[in-house]
Amino acid sequence: MGDPGGYLDGAVHRLPIRVYYEDTDAGGIVYHSNYLRFAERGRTEMLRALGSGHTDLVQSEGVAFAVRRCEIDFRWPARLDDLLEVETRIADIGGASIVFEQTIFIVADMAAKTERRLLVRILLTVFCLNPQGRPVRLPGPVRLALDDLQARDVIS
User: Fold this and answer.
1) Which of 1, 76, 77, 102 has a 20 to 30 A CA-CA distance from 34?
2) How far is CA 40 from CA 20, 99, 112, 113, in A?
3) Which segments constitute the Thioesterase domain (predicted)?
4) Which active-site residues does the annotation give?
5) How many domains does one find in the chain?
6) Cα angle: 144, vertex 8, 123; to 5 degrees
7) Is the pLDDT of residue 111 over 80?
8) Measured distance CA(110)–CA(79) in Å, rounded
9) pTM recorded for the entire structure
10) Structure confidence by residue, pLDDT tens digits, 10-37
11) In the predicted model, is pLDDT for residue 154 greater than 80?
């Protein structure tokens, strides 16, 4: 069985997600806001794979991430029982911010018997915040891990 947290593939983190009944509307189509939940899982698992899980950051560094901006382009719907893959990559790193580019693909559409179709593209910016809610610089270990990941993208 694969890692439930997905895996790093070069500079891209890949997270498989199955569409369950709870993810869909009355018509069996994934409800639009659930794509944000899927993307959140992708970002969380990418950071965890880099050694910077949310709980660890709060406990060791006293910081957390908050979404500042999100752009979503819905291209195609997913349906009940579809197998999806959330791809997460770093688009940009600032002093206190990270811009993630995320794409959600259908890997296997059981009903239509199709593979690998782009469903959603998301561009999302998060800021690193201290306990008072003010932006602070990314912790050194996080910054190093993200810089290393971005370097993998340049080398590929």
Assistant:
1) 1
2) 17, 13, 27, 27
3) 27-106
4) 25
5) 1
6) 75
7) no
8) 9
9) 0.89
10) 999 999 999 999 999 999 999 999 999 9
11) no
